Amino acid sequence: MTKPPSTTGQKIEHAFEKALDPFATALKRATRTPGSDPAATTPAPAAGKPGLKISPLAVPFPTIPPIGGVEIATARAGFYKHERDDLVVFRFARGTSCAGVFTRHKIGSAPVDWCKKHLTGTDGGKDVRALVVNAGCANAFTGKAGADAARRTASEVAKRFGCRQRDVMLASTGVIGVVLDEKKIVAKLPEIENGLDADAWARAGRGIMTTDTFPKGSYAEAEIEGYKVRISGIAKGSGMIAPDMATMLAFIVTDADIHPNVLQALLGLHVRTTFNSVTVDGDTSTNDTALLFATGTSGAPRIGRVGDRRLKSFSAALDKVMLDLAHQLVRDGEGATKFVKVTVDGAASPASARKLAKSIADSPLVKTAIAGEDANWGRVVMAVGKTEEPVDRDRLGIRFGPNVAAVEGAPSATYDEAKMSAYMKNPEIDITVDVGAGRASATVWTCDLTKGYIEINGDYRS
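Structure for Arginine biosynthesis bifunctional protein ArgJ, as requested:
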């Protein structure tokens, strides 16, 4: 890893490089001839699995402006049989900070091991220069061979970008139990290097898709001492999604100047109520990775202390981006037709509230009833009671949107089956449960469980 500049000359060179980065990007874009942007003149390459219909809950990919200090390129490395980009590479300016949160799965992948090792080591996350993401091969449960492939990938990218291999972050998604063929990535590095572009967020979003049916992106702005800072992110995930991360990848970049320790604290704070509060099927993956990068090119003062009040606006904007991406994962749940918000109130503790909400959100019986637009709120009662969490049966209350199903531990006197059935036809459903055991609350977002989920996963490798 490159050490922080120590001499006056090195400091000037470092500052000059950072200052020039946005101008270099602008010049690159300005010198394009009209219509020369490939993304604007050619149809978007196929992405995801062929034959999948776009989720009815899909949202359009947002307009994401360039972020100073980061360029992106995509390519087809050939991890999939069909024509599509399946390799995405980010190149960052010198001095970029990085933080990460990863799966708690006991069988983590080689890329997860690589990132955790180098982000938690001495000076970890202080000068990250690249991120390499491939779709189509998870490189998980691949032993030493997989670890060696990850190391060789980082080494080859480091040679190209003039940094140490530990300055290269890795992420993979796809089939478990297949060793990554890093030669496919290495062969595309000349194309990647020539194709680096600050305005490639949409292509990157498509390049990391697996069974996703639409690319997922988000953008927000914040202010630090009068300076505008930008926050952009992309994510992928559709199935094997559960709290404590999921089979998801998320990459967020800001031009703020923030120390890695502060980034880590912010990421850990917001992941609990965003990426760790969504579930599609209750399964957790081997490859879950969320990485947050700060390039420091905005001109805003450096933030080096956790709890700095100047981070208030930034923290809120980061939470907005992360929650938006997390919601999009649920909206693209495999076979999903309903976006469901489950809120538990009156729990004995926040942990208890989360466990109760997750029990409801993960219940196949609850999820299939929602898919069938069946107002069977008795299944919610079942999902609450099976957790063994503190619940006061005689104070239990249940609402579906504005419709009260149960109150004070019994069916509501005002319950209207026709109104409840009509509400269940909505594409977005809110379920609120008060368990009468305390004052804690938690919210988990999920989707329904349909035949489409079985169809997608029944031939995942075919």
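The longest strand covers residues 227-236.
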